[in-house]
Every structure is written in structure tokens, then in C-alpha cells.
Amino acid sequence: MKIYLKGKCNNDCIFCDIDKKRDTLFSQVEKKIEKASERGDKRVVFTGAEPTFREDILDLIGLAKKKKIDIIQLNTNGRLLADKKFTEKIIKAGANYFKISLHAILQNCTIIFPEGETVLIKQLEGLRI
Ligand code: SF4
Fold first, then answer.
1. Is 109 close to ligand 1, i.e. is its CB under 6 Å away?
2. Could you tell me the fold of the domain covering 2-128?
3. 100 lines ligand 1 (CB under 6 A)
4. Maximum Cα–Cα distance for the chain, whole Å?
5. How far, in Å, from the CA of 18 to the mean position of ligand 1?
């Protein structure tokens, strides 16, 4: 099951069509995980906006793990994965599959990365970890 978390992102891609005005509530995500578990889904995918940018992401991952979901996937831009301690926490919580989107190959692609070149470097660091 794919779960759209919506809410904020630390990128600002010009083509993004995710609703960033408000997060999907914790209780709504909880219901979706329960539904996935009840019907025997093997995989839960946390996606857009940016799962790692959400304060309760460790709890959400933990919930999926508690419900015995085999594959707990994050679709992420990978920026915050450059923080090794944070990545270790996410993995310890139960995330075991990462789909990392690199939306630009130019370091100065300000259309996607308003902060400029450091963003792509962070993403690549995240990939390395
Ligand atoms: S990284 Fe993904 S969620 Fe974030 S702005 Fe870009 S397309 Fe949207």
C-alpha cells in the first residue's frame, strides 16, 4: 500500500504536484497501515511529500513494523539521509527499502533546489550512507 503523507518538503521542485498545505494526520496513516496489515499487504510505501521531513516518521515506521509489514519503504529525496545518525534511527525503527529520487544532476539547479548547490551534495551523501 502506498501512503501519501503530504505536508512539507525540503525541496521545492517546480513540477511537484503534492498537496503541501497540510500533513496527512497520524490517525489517518495509522488506519491505512492497519488496513494494509489486515489484508496481508507485504509492503507499505511512505511517499510525498518528504517522509523524512516529518517529525513522527519514526513512529509511523515503528507502527508498520509492529503490524508485521515485511517491506517498509520510504520514497525520499535523500537529503536528510546524509545525517548518518538519523538514517540509523530510521533503519532501527524498521525502514528497510529506500527509493531515492534525484530530480536534478546539476548542482546549481535552483528550480528544484532553492538553496542551490549544497542540496545535491547532501542527496549524494545520503545515497552513500
Ligand atoms: S522532492 Fe518530491 S515532494 Fe519534494 S518538492 Fe520535489 S517532487 Fe515534491
1. no
2. TIM Barrel (3.20.20)
3. no
4. 46
5. 7
